[in-house]
Amino acid sequence: MFERFTKGARATVTGAVTHAERTGADSVTEEHLLLSLLDQEGSRASFAVAALGLTDRRASLEASLAEARRRGGLTKADTEALAGIGIDVTEIVARVEDAHGEGVLAGDRSTRRWWSARRPFTGGAKSILEKSLRIALGRRDRFIGEEHLLLALTAGPGVVADVLAEHGATYTTVERALYGAGGGAQGQALAG
């Protein structure tokens, strides 16, 4: 599939690996794909990101992603569902952090896999890459570009999609920024 990626999309994927390495993460996640995508310049996706104001709110995006990591990767929908049955995630996180240290639910990044230069992609990150292919095919695009990766990040449930939606970047708003009002939902049916 990687041979179908444009130069910019390849740079985004390799940039995600760099983000994972820089933070000491054991694997490449959807979050790393998003952060790498925000680093890219001069593409249709970078134009959409700027048009939606995400470039100016990168610190806010990163803070929201950090807060989600602190909750152990639970989405807002997960947190609300648990609250509906009487489980206060904020209280649980506070108690766990009191006992074991701040950020413990985000995962232990100190056990870096020094014996391997390659970091695997999480199932969620792989899913984003697969969705980007389906979106490109749905739009009848021959290659997978950064814009397809951006759309894939907004196309399904998950922490990154939640954080993007909080910042005004839903599938519909991103598609509109990329393709205009007549962008249609060609890729939407295949994205889910």
From TrEMBL:
Residues 2-184 form the Clp R domain. The lineage of its organism: Bacteria, Bacillati, Actinomycetota, Actinomycetes, Kitasatosporales. This is Clp protease N-terminal domain-containing protein. One of its GO terms (biological process) is proteolysis. PROSITE patterns: CLP_R. InterPro entries: Clp_N_dom_sf (IPR036628), Clp_R_N (IPR004176). One of its GO terms (molecular function) is peptidase activity. Keywords: Hydrolase, Protease, Repeat.
